[in-house]
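Q: What does the assembled structure look like for these inputs?
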Amino acid sequence: MATGHAQRTLRNSFGLPSNRYQMLNWSSKALIHLLALAGAVAFLIPFLWMISTSLKPMEKIFQYPPQWMPDPILWRNYIEALTVMPFGLYFRNSIYVTVLSVVGQILSSAVVAYGFARLRFPGRNILFIILLATMMLPWQVTMIPLFILYRSLDWINTYYPLIVPNFLGGSPFFIFLLRQFFLTLPLELDEAAKLDGCGPFRILWQILLPLAIPGLTTVAIFSFLWNWNEFLWPLIVLNDVDKWTIPLGLNGFRDQYGTDWNHLMAASFVASLPVIIIFFMFQRYFIQGIATTGAKG
Amino acid sequence: MATGQKAQTVSAPWSILRPRERRHKDLYVALLFLAPSLLGLFLLQVLPIGTALVLGVSEWNIIDPIKFVGLKNFVEVATDATFYHTLENTLYITVGLEVLNTLLGLCAALLLKNAMRGIDLYRTIYFLPLITTWAAVAIAWRYMYSLEGPINAMLGPLGIDPIPWLSRPEWAMPAVIITITWKTLSWKTIILLAGLQSIPNEFYEASSIDGASKLQQFWKITLPLLSPAMFFALIIGIINTLQIFDPIFIMTDGGPADSTRTLSYYIYTRGFQNLRMGYAAALSWVLFAIILLFTLVQWVLQKRWVFYQ
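A:
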């Protein structure tokens, strides 16, 4: 080892390339790229297949050997898929539920997070721990009682069970995330504002929130993804076909036209587009959010 | 001057109050800020938990009056063959998924840690499945798993006969696990990647001066220092997997022959299809106990393998 090291420095001092090491370096880099590429292919193939199949005529879907490029390209599959079931309506329903839920989760989790980060009151830490501990409770335990609660309010088959809970504190994940964010902002800001006569609501609204935009963006992204993709809860509370959200609509489509693959793929692709676009725009926040809180995707 | 005076009158209640009154005032303000959460905690957690406890010892089909039956539901769970079968399936998924996700997630995190050209593009692609709606993903994989579908078409040239992925009990579960791995792998990867990036570079530099090989560095530095992140990802990952529902419902409907029916799907069936709310609530408490047990066991076992700096 010692001689090898000496040889290397000796050669380097003469300006000679130490071929063996450069080769090694080069080949390990190539290997890393190759592996990364293989991973990317594995992750992409289902999407590519989805798009390719969505444009094929029915009789070519199971062609062997499989063809990547659809021939002919049937754009009208998309029109047919989106009209055979009222997907326009499902989109509108999903957007309605999602936008209101996101607003509710941002507002309520910001207010609560501010309370935990900045206000002093007895039992603060215990309450915070209880809040985080509720994440341990499986959704299946509260799901049935909540269904009963909303049923007694006559809220079944309305959007209230999907939206209203988001105004009541949102998710512990978001409260945790924003609390951590507020804690990083200097306390002097609050104190200066207080001296100028700001009450706590104005401190939050005019001083902390503008500074917490990265944190709020993270909350908004997750909230959007979760609410848009939510399946089980809407499945339980929405009965009317007209009330369905996008995931329910897709599932209903599969239920009725189980092997109509080209149209199913077209609808699936269109249904995924909003989240894919949002992800492309804000992926940095998304990845940071998971890395710091372990929120599920 | 005028604005100064106005500000003072506004701030007066805040700053001039005596300490005790101020503490009261603080409490009111805090209550106001925490109101959404307190209300949510009560209405969406405490009340439902209480209801679930009552339901667990009752029989109720939503229509007839609720009837107290004591521990009958739990006794029934203990002798319910379907329960054991779904429990077995749930454990199968959980173990399979954790093993695959941890191994592959570690590989992916190690790959992504290397700052190379095109890394941003790779990362975006890796995370695409995670954000995509389960409904769309499950439908796409249903197609890919069909007998003449793309996966069997790709396996054909390798000399593998078409596999009846979703139509045979022995294949359905591996198929489901592969799909869930594909979808959730990047969640594991993000957490492990964050763990990798928090390992100080000095450790690697110092050890390579001492002549440690890459493999030695991996076993002696990377793995021990990554163990807290692995532990965290394991705990949360298992809690999530034990509750898995969407892919099962959309991809296999629990079949064929109940081979992929999980506990959470069974709870849904009993509660919302058979309208046996009491029995479903009892099952949900059993699920909670299992989650608690898993978490506790891991908590105890962490002393053996998790290394905190």
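The radius of gyration of chain B is 26 Å.
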